[in-house]
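Hi F.,

I've been meaning to write this up properly since the lab meeting, where we talked about keeping a consistent format for the predictions we share between groups. The idea is simple: the sequence comes first, exactly as it goes in, then the structure tokens exactly as they come out, then a line or two of notes. No screenshots and no reformatting. I'm using this chain as the first example so we have something concrete to point to.
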Amino acid sequence: MSSPTSSHAYGIGLIALLIGLSASVVFYTSFYLPESLAKPSVSHAILEPAEEFFLIEIVPGAVIDGNENYVPNKPTVLLTFTNNVKWVNNDDTAHTVTPDHRFADPFSGDFGSPGVIKPGDSYEFLFTEPTVVHYFCQPHPWMKGEVSVEKSRF
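Output, unedited:
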């Protein structure tokens, strides 16, 4: 027959074990798992394309309705070659690159300039999977563009 002291010790040990396991599960599901799933695995060739960036210029006079605005206006960029796209504002007015519909790249996050792009400034976005994104300038909604991202055939 066991003494009452040993059964209490056994009970306390069991409770400590359950608390430890619970804390481990909470840590794994709350901290470790979300961090490990935060960004997908993307090949090095896509993350560092052959070209430093593909340039889209916001041309002088883009603010005037009917003028060219984003040049080129509907480019096709290729993963591993030109998928890092850079918009440069060469106009004397601030503009934006705002998606028509919310778009988030699994690796790079939300697409769209974080506020206005002042004259002489730029906005870059790294696309990591095939897609088509339609965008416009929020203060000047007649300014529209599109980027098609395709897999490289090489």
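Notes:
The CA atoms of residues 93 and 119 lie 6 Å apart.
The mean pLDDT is 88.

If this format works for you, I'll send the rest the same way.

G.
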